[in-house]
Specification:
heterodimer, A: 465 residues, alpha/beta, four-stranded parallel sheet, globular, B: 256 residues, Rossmann fold, six-stranded mixed sheet
């Protein structure tokens, strides 16, 4: 196939599909760093014009990383559902955008088609979509998962409570957990990023969260975000593991740099399933991804960072996760330079993830060396919540004192729920009402020193300092 | 304090963590005081990223401890290119490479490189006292080369410096990316038998070095424990597990 298009008086030639995809991508620093970005505005538009005419069938038949050398490509090709694809198999990328926006393309249709959509198709069409298109179509995608509560129902917004502490101090973690729960956060997961990777210390963290969840009978799940091989070890030792976490990326080589492959993920997935700790469902995985991770591992193969990010979603969906989180502004300005780039990337990731059938949440975040601030986060979280984001992060005051970056807070989640009329997961909502933390209208309630959770603090907070 | 504020009756828990808990609320939003506190902390962190390292002052302080210094610069010409082009921050400028080649003496056991990284504040505050603790604890027979101070530096520039100076092991002391509550956190990276092909998986990392985090004595202790083990096992990085008695080593090279 010839890849070319005329923009103005000039005809642009592209040597292969991945070059068209890369050059059609909205400008971002990571693609310049990789040397794959369009050199002019006109070249970018030419690439989009070219992309619009490429049939989806051609994308399916043209792996951008070779099948023989990459297990992620093999997963994408081998698990493709031709029957689901039949509805859209006659479309070009441009037609696909139009089809997605049709009123007749409803939630049920999108659910049915999802297994027929490959990551490259999702990424391709997103490059032709404006921000409002990404929001409108993502909003139509309905992805529901369950463990001890039900995540992703219409009109709901869940929150991962992230009670990190720089030295994993049990009292510090318990204090942040209590703070978040009293602000109505924690229905997606209570997930700790540990500072340690020592197995005994990790076991302590699992028991800490598990005791708090049991003590207050909270319909939620826990997770400790350590390497998957550590989680396999702690499961063997009998730790109360609800969700298994892993960072994943869109190529076999990038995953190798994370110390994982599909076999290791499968082993962990099966181990977690065998514990049967879910009550209303059995989605046991929690994944994190982020644009730039493949390039930072020198494992991008000339593919633009958004397309290869989307390939990570194929890995994620294979393991039927409860949650999948794009950590959008975390790696730094060499990948997403400023608020504008972070906002665009967040909307793309959410759209692509949802189109592929993933329960996508977003760590709406930035680092202090990026040209971004909390106003940009307000904008992105409001857009994502409008688009039906499955969950966001909740960190005390949006300031993660362990990972040194800024994200979203318990207050932010309350703002979104208030402005957009969103509610927590239903089981968790009931619990919040029983505990007098939230009323039936979703308003957070005044808490006095006599509140049950303060009178009956987690044991970890009562241990003498 | 305005009447609109609903304070949180769990203030006492703040003694357990520096996390921003029990902030109170107005409606369900942050009180003005907290919005301003956050804004101020962000301003300090932003300034820390852009504050240039006072190399001359640092060199004087290090030399006062009896350690010679050499000054080099990465290929990143300024902070803007440093932020956008990490590859340039990982390599020596042509001039600096010549300077180092000219200063080449006998191979050393442990080479110390100091890089500004993302917080010159961390370097200015913590490198001199940390070096003092390190030198005190250094095994007697180990040779220490000149302390190389590198401008617009990323961690991996230490590999090229070490290769040029034929060092058996290299330690990079570098300003970590500033957090809101910690604009001055220092990171330590140890690489055994460094080469230009080394990756992050070949290094051991000790992070959050500062009096409010891991203090100088503990950091020096941990570093030398790892360095001795690296010599014994002839390896560093993921193959060298930290079993010194503390557990604050940040292990993750991953997304989060």
């Amino acid at each position: 196939m010839q890849y070319q298009a005329t923009a103005g008086v000039h005809t642009y030639q592209f040597k292969d599909l991945k070059e068209v995809l890369a050059k059609a991508t909205p400008a971002r620093s990571g693609d310049y760093l990789a040397g794959v970005a369009a050199e002019t505005y006109a070249e970018r538009m030419a690439a989009r014009l070219c992309l619009a005419d490429i049939p989806l069938k051609h994308i399916l038949d043209t792996p951008i990383i070779p099948y023989e050398s990459d297990e992620v490509t093999r997963l994408i090709v081998d698990s493709h559902d031709a029957q689901a694809f039949a509805t859209i198999s006659h479309l070009t990328v441009g037609d696909f955008r139009d089809w997605l926006l049709l009123d007749s393309t409803d939630s049920a249709t999108l659910t049915r088609v999802a297994p027929g959509v490959t990551p490259e198709m999702a990424a391709a069409v997103s490059k032709l979509m404006r921000n409002q298109d990404l929001i409108l179509v993502a909003k139509k995608c309905q992805i529901t998962t369950a463990f001890r509560n039900t995540i992703g129902l219409a009109g709901r917004l869940s929150v991962r409570l992230q009670p990190n502490h720089p030295t994993d101090d049990a009292r510090g973690i318990a204090a942040s957990m209590l703070d978040g729960l009293l602000y109505g956060s924690g229905d997606a997961v209570i997930g700790i990023n540990p500072a340690t990777d020592s197995i005994p210390a990790l076991m302590d963290l699992y028991h800490l969260v598990d005791e708090v969840i049991s003590q207050y009978a909270i319909p939620t799940q826990s997770c400790v975000l350590t390497h998957v091989t550590n989680q396999i070890q702690v499961m063997e030792k009998g730790a109360p593991v609800d969700l298994v976490f892993q960072s994943i990326a869109g190529s076999e080589k990038a995953n190798h740099s994370f110390g994982i492959n599909l076999g290791i993920l499968k082993e962990a997935y099966e181990a977690a399933l065998s514990l049967k700790r879910g009550t209303v469902g059995h989605n046991v995985m929690y994944f994190e991804t982020g644009q730039g991770s493949a390039l930072s591992a020198n494992a991008n193969f000339g593919v633009d960072q958004q397309t290869i990010e989307t390939r990570a979603y194929a890995v994620a969906r294979h393991f039927k996760p409860l949650l999948s989180n794009t950590v959008v502004g975390f790696i730094g300005p060499e990948y997403l330079y400023d608020g504008k780039q972070i906002i665009r990337a967040g909307l793309e990731d959410h759209f692509c993830g949802k189109l592929l059938g993933l329960p996508l949440g977003c760590d709406v975040c930035y680092t202090n060396h990026a040209e971004a601030d909390q106003d940009d986060m307000d904008t992105l979280m409001t857009l994502l919540a409008t688009a039906g984001i499955t969950f966001i992060m909740g960190i005390p005051g949006a300031d993660d004192i362990m990972l040194n970056y800024q994200t979203t807070s318990f207050h932010d989640a309350l703002y979104l729920r208030k402005v957009l009329g969103l509610k927590p997961a239903p089981e968790f909502e009931q619990w919040l009402m029983q505990m007098n933390i939230m009323d039936a209208q979703g308003r957070v309630q005044p808490v006095t020193g006599q509140h049950a959770m303060l009178q009956n603090m987690p044991r970890h907070l009562l241990v003498a300092a | 304090m305005s009447d609109a504020l609903s304070p949180d009756p769990w203030q006492q828990l703040r003694r357990h963590t520096r996390a921003r808990i029990a902030l109170g609320r107005v409606g369900s939003s942050l009180p003005t005081k907290e919005v301003l506190d956050f804004g101020l902390a962000h301003a300090m962190a932003r300034d820390a990223v852009h504050l240039p390292l006072d190399v001359a002052k640092l060199a004087t302080q290090i030399e006062a401890q009896g350690l010679p210094t050499v000054q080099v610069h990465s290929r990143a010409a300024d902070r803007h290119s440093y932020l956008l082009r990490p590859d340039q921050g990982r390599r020596l400028s042509a001039d600096s490479l010549q300077t180092l080649q000219a200063s080449m003496a006998a191979p050393v056991d442990l080479l110390v490189v100091v890089g500004d990284g993302l917080s010159s504040l961390a370097v200015e505050r913590h490198v001199p006292p940390l070096l003092e603790q390190l030198v005190q604890r250094l095994p007697e027979h180990w040779t220490l080369g000149p302390v190389v101070i590198a401008g617009q530096a990323r961690v991996a520039i230490a590999d090229e410096i070490a290769v040029t100076l034929k060092a058996r092991m290299v330690v990079m002391l570098i300003g970590e990316r500033p957090g809101l509550s910690s604009p001055d956190s220092l990171g330590i990276y140890l690489t055994y038998a460094p080469t230009l092909a080394c990756s992050d998986a070949d290094r051991n990392c000790i992070s959050n070095v500062r009096p409010e985090g891991l203090d100088y004595a503990a950091a020096a202790h941990k570093l030398l424990w790892l360095a001795r083990e690296a010599v014994r096992l002839k390896v560093s990085g993921v193959a060298l597990k930290d079993e010194s008695d503390m557990k604050e080593v940040a292990g993750s090279l991953q997304i989060k």
